[in-house]
Design brief:
Layout lengths: L5 H17 L3 H7 L5 E6 L6 H5 L6 E6 L9 H13 L4 E7 L3 H8 L6 H14 L1 H5 L4 H21 L2 H8 L5 E7 L6 E3 L10 H18 L1
């Protein structure tokens, strides 16, 4: 097996040329500024590329990714991205994006031991345990996993809204809205989980209403 990256470098050059063929000044303009309206906090899964899914070009979305799209108040990596996006780039929308069939969520659900990452996935297990009674009332495992993927997104929106970064932004009147989205690997479609948060007023009521809608959908089948 070759240890060289010739294939990737060739693909890069082909992509670069195709972009310049469409817009001769694209890279010059891109290098001059970064002015995205969106911050994407998503899963590290290789099947969920932010720009492609949104149909946006480089420079139009700021991205942070980790396993199972988790927002933890002690994760300085995520918080640093968040603060830069809010305070320096002045993004208008922050998207927490999960996806159905998430390996991290599945491992957390089944208590699968994977190694060091088990400690990270404990956060997802906390979400599972928080909603255990209602999750276990769903009649099949596949639907339970889908609900947990959605619930995990809502929980991370809640966590995000409770950071000092967001509290400070809203306190000074900055207009930035948080959203929870879920992506379908089988059809490529994003679904809004209907928890837009643009203030810390009535935050828990927004969260609880979004959770109730998910379980109501499960009951309808």
């Amino acid at each position: 097996m070759s240890n060289r990256l010739d294939f990737l470098l060739k693909q890069n050059r082909l992509w670069s040329q195709s972009v310049k063929d469409r817009d001769h000044h694209f890279f010059r303009n891109l290098a001059a500024q970064q002015n995205p309206k969106y911050l994407w906090i998503g899963c590290a899964d290789s099947r969920v590329p932010a720009n492609e899914i949104l149909g946006l070009l480089p420079g139009e979305v700021f991205v942070h990714r980790n396993v199972a799209n988790v927002v933890v108040h002690t994760d300085l990596n995520c918080l640093s991205v968040l603060q830069y996006a809010v305070d320096a780039l002045h993004v208008e929308h922050i998207l927490v994006v999960g996806h159905y069939g998430c390996g991290g969520v599945t491992a957390a659900f089944h208590n699968t031991r994977l190694g060091l990452i088990d400690n990270w996935l404990r956060h997802v297990q906390d979400v599972r345990d928080k909603h255990r009674t209602r999750l276990m009332a769903i009649p099949d495992t596949a639907r339970q996993l889908d609900r947990l993927c959605e619930l995990n997104v809502l929980e991370q929106v809640l966590n995000l809204s409770e950071t000092t970064i967001m509290h400070d932004a809203w306190a000074r009147g900055q207009e930035v809205t948080l959203h929870g989205l879920i992506y379908g690997l089988e059809d490529g479609i994003l679904h809004d989980l209907n928890m837009p948060v643009s203030t810390d007023d009535e935050l828990l009521s927004y969260y609880e209403a979004a959770v109730d809608r998910l379980f109501a959908a499960s009951e309808r089948g």
